[in-house]
Design a protein that fits this description.
The structure holds 2 protein chains of 2 kinds. Chain A is α+β, with helices and mostly antiparallel strands. Helix content of chain A is 23%, strand content 21%. In chain A, the strands form 7 sheets. In chain A, strands 16-15-24-23-22-17-18-21 form an 8-stranded mixed β-sheet. In chain A, helix 8 runs parallel beside helix 9 and helix 8 packs across helix 13. Chain A is elongated, with a radius of gyration of 28 Å. The two termini of chain A are 24 Å apart. The mean pLDDT of chain A is 96. In chain B, helix 2 packs across helix 3 and helix 3 packs across helix 4. The longest helix of chain B has 12 residues. In chain B, strand 4 and strand 5 form a beta hairpin. By secondary structure, chain B is an alpha+beta fold. Chain B is built from 9 helices and 5 strands; from the N terminus they run βααααβααβββααα. The chains are: A alpha+beta, B alpha+beta. Strand 7 of chain A pairs parallel with strand 1 of chain B, so a sheet runs across the interface. Bound molecules: iron/sulfur cluster and FE2/S2 (inorganic) cluster. The site of iron/sulfur cluster has 14 residues of chain A, from helix 4.
């Protein structure tokens, strides 16, 4: 482990990293634009320059080199000494910041990036308050560079992070630098706009307000947003994300650093696929049917009611005629509670993994990458927790069927009652499934949107979108990733976890942590959670 | 203020037309592949070949070059736009480059530029009506010791006065470089230490603008 001295402080750092990364890891704030740990190093912004001790050619004594060196491009070497707290380094930072602002329109009041902008922060901390430029500023046109992305060229600092992302991570190379010197611009070839499914990342990568997300444009000031750590429910990759929300409304999703899973990235399907959360057509209240009469019970009465109906069914038809279809959109905790309810009342009941939605093929990036060169993967399996449900079914044992087997046996009339959990963002009930369900004497449905199962259901319970759930998902690599609840369910609804917790006979508030502790006693795997480390405080 | 947005979802005007690069041009580009480790490395020769063949490198030609080199069109645009040598729109048969460097300007470069504009009837970046000349300026033509300078094709015209401009424009050979040889080189032993051997630069000027 190399030990280097930064500003007089000895620091033990990882092998094969740059001095800049070492300084950031140690909690230092070194301004930088072009450096990003996930991209190649170009050392073009010159903001991270430092002083380094090198042997004086005359005396061979280590002395501060007369030339400033880029910290991002200088690898750590044991025993090296560098400093950032020096007048020469500060003067360079001030000059760089003045240079970056030469043509900048200073339109913070109407800029989306305002509040999370590294031009603002660095100007404040490292910049010069006044610009000496007296010439007229260049005004560059905006560019529509892709279906989700706008480029406000006049705010760009030419760090080329966005260009390198399309070259090195998505592998699609849509962006380039046109012209030269002070006329440099970021551009896409006419008719070949950003078309890759990772394009949203260039907006996160852009340290300033140049690249912007069209859907988020002018929607919220970022300082009004609360960021809750979550896991994307879009596919089995299980990207760590931030859910940015304000007063119960979701505004955007951003990737959260998660080395080895999604690193710094996420795909556009996940990023932009949350609109259904605020769909006005969501089921927002429980429903109970007796004969042709349908009522909306008080939530307080629901646990008793559900338990009673199940007990009644078991008494009449026996537990073996009962099945539960668990959705791969449930958290492990919710599934565990439901299994517990069912197996408690009817040990011979059957457990089924619900349909697993897929779309196309699993895609690897950069385009064409295989094996070690893969930097990002979008799974064809469009649900977050198939493996979690499988893990729980295996641990539960007893009668376990696939959805096809269940459909076949149900078609033969072997089941008389079922608890079916949906929660799929897309319509998922086909004619055959609806027909099957129609024959059950007791049908409990937990779902998010109206569908053909509901008319025949004795009890309908509203299901939540993932941002309203709390618990853990098991991703394609088998990592158990816990996440927090960001939003409350729509008015009138209750969280799945909460009502399942109460139906299972527990009192008080559902908490993922508490349920997980109980699960871990029976299934030790749940004691091994995958929780990514945070990014260094001043890294971006 | 009207603030335009350029739409990059729209292809450039000339796309969808018949291919611009003939098979011969493509083959000439491919013949450079053997020289380099990657096809991408043949990009600069390819741009020269295309500009020689078409006179300029329009967007459609960039797409076709990208196909031949197996790279993204954006990568071709990146390089082609970096070098002012490459034109993305049609240019005249000859390009006149006037130096706007400090020395040339002090020595009267602006008057030469104005005279060119007047005689050609165009502004900077324009092309004369007969298609013979396009006019641009550059920061330095590396002839500061003989300013004001202007470059036509391969030939650098030095110490140009406004009154020389008409003559230069009329000269059909104004863009062709006639290599000057020093007298030392031609006859090293016959004229040892002759004072006239060193004054070659003046000769260049006279022949160059004459
Ligand atoms: S658009 Fe943003 S990311 Fe791209 S070069 Fe400009 S500042 Fe950097
Ligand atoms: S030069 Fe080091 S971060 Fe840009």
């Amino acid at each position: 482990m190399p030990r280097i001295i930064i500003d007089g402080r000895p620091i033990d750092c990882r092998e094969d990293i740059s001095v800049l990364q070492a300084a950031l890891d140690a909690g230092g704030d070194v301004p930088h634009y072009c450096y990003h740990p996930g991209l190649s190093i170009v050392a073009s912004c010159r903001l991270c320059l430092m002083e380094m001790k090198v042997p004086n050619p005359r005396t061979q004594e280590p002395d501060w080199s007369p030339k400033l060196l880029p910290a991002c491009q200088t690898p750590v070497r044991d025993g090296m000494e560098v400093r950032f707290h020096s007048e020469r380094v500060r003067e360079n930072q001030r000059s760089c910041m003045e240079f970056f602002l030469l043509n900048h329109p200073l339109d913070c009041p109407v800029c989306d990036q305002s509040g999370e902008c590294w031009l603002q922060d660095y100007s404040f901390k490292f910049g010069r308050a006044e610009s000496r430029m007296i010439d007229e500023k260049c005004k560059n046109p905006k560019k529509d560079v892709g279906p989700h992305t706008l480029l406000y060229q006049d705010r760009c600092v030419m760090c080329t992070r966005c260009v390198r992302f399309t070259q090195e991570i998505s592998g699609t190379s849509e962006l380039c630098v046109v012209n030269r010197g002070s006329r440099c611009e970021i551009d896409a070839f006419p008719g070949k706009p950003l078309a890759n499914p990772l394009q949203g990342n260039v907006v996160d990568l852009c340290p300033v307000g140049a690249l912007l997300d069209k859907q988020f444009l002018f929607r919220q000031r970022v300082w009004l947003l609360t960021s809750t750590p979550s896991i994307c429910a879009g596919c089995a990759t299980g990207c760590a994300i931030w859910v940015d929300h304000n007063q119960g409304t979701l505004w955007r999703l951003r990737p959260r650093y998660n080395p080895g899973v999604n690193d710094w990235w996420m795909c556009d399907d996940g990023r932009f696929g949350w609109r259904y959360v605020h769909d006005g057509k969501r089921i927002a209240a429980p429903r109970v049917r007796r004969g042709s009469e349908q009522t909306t019970p008080d939530w307080a009465a629901v646990p008793q009611l559900v338990r009673f109906r199940i007990e009644e069914h078991v008494r009449r038809h026996g537990g073996a005629t009962l099945a539960a279809v668990l959705s791969p959109f449930m958290t492990c905790e919710e599934a565990w509670l439901l299994i517990r309810v069912l197996r408690d009342k009817a040990p011979a009941s059957t457990l089924v993994l619900g349909p697993v939605p897929t779309a196309g093929e699993t895609r690897h990036f950069p385009v064409g990458a295989t094996g070690n060169t893969v930097k990002f993967t979008i799974q064809a399996e469009k649900c977050p927790n198939r493996r979690g449900i499988e893990l729980l079914l295996a641990a539960a044992g007893g009668n376990v069927l696939t959805f096809e087997q269940f459909a076949e046996q149900a078609g033969k009339g072997e089941f008389k009652g079922a608890w079916i959990v949906g929660g799929y963002p897309q319509p998922w009930v086909d004619k055959a499934t609806a027909k099957l369900a129609a024959q059950f004497e007791l049908l409990i449905v937990q779902d998010i949107f109206e569908n053909d199962l509901l008319p025949g259901a004795a009890i309908v319970l509203p299901a939540c979108a993932w941002a309203e759930r709390e618990g853990c998902f098991v991703n394609a690599r088998g990592l158990i990733q816990p996440f927090q609840r960001a939003l409350n369910p729509p008015a009138g609804a209750q969280r799945d976890g909460q009502y399942l917790y109460e139906i299972a006979g527990f009192q008080g508030l559902y908490s993922g942590v508490r349920v997980r502790a109980m699960m871990a006693e029976k299934i030790p795997a749940f004691a091994q959670l995958h929780e990514p480390p945070p990014m260094p405080r001043h890294a971006h | 203020m009207a603030w335009p947005t350029i739409d990059r979802n729209q292809p450039a005007g000339d796309s969808g037309a018949a291919p611009l690069l003939s098979e011969a041009v493509r083959e000439k580009i491919r013949s450079f592949f053997a020289r380099y480790e990657t096809k991408r490395a043949a990009l600069l020769p390819a741009l020269h070949i295309v500009q020689d063949a078409l006179g300029h490198v329009p967007p459609q030609a960039m797409v076709e070059v990208a196909e031949v080199l197996d790279i993204a069109p954006a990568a071709v645009l990146d390089t082609a736009s970096f070098y002012t040598h490459f034109w993305t729109h049609p240019k005249g048969a000859q390009v006149i480059v006037v130096c706007r460097g400090l020395t040339c300007e002090v020595l009267g470069g602006n008057a030469v530029l104005e005279e060119l504009k007047r005689l050609l009837g165009i502004d900077e970046h324009g092309t004369s009506a007969d298609g013979r000349y396009s006019l641009v300026t550059e920061d330095c033509l590396a002839g500061c010791d003989h300013g004001p300078c202007l470059l036509i094709g391969e030939k650098l015209h030095r110490r140009v006065r406004p009154e020389d401009v008409a003559r230069i424009l009329a000269d059909p050979d104004n863009g062709r470089l006639a290599y000057e040889r020093s007298t030392l080189f031609d006859a090293p032993s016959s004229a040892p230490g002759e004072p006239g051997a060193g004054n070659g630069t003046g000769g260049v000027h006279e022949k160059g603008s004459g």
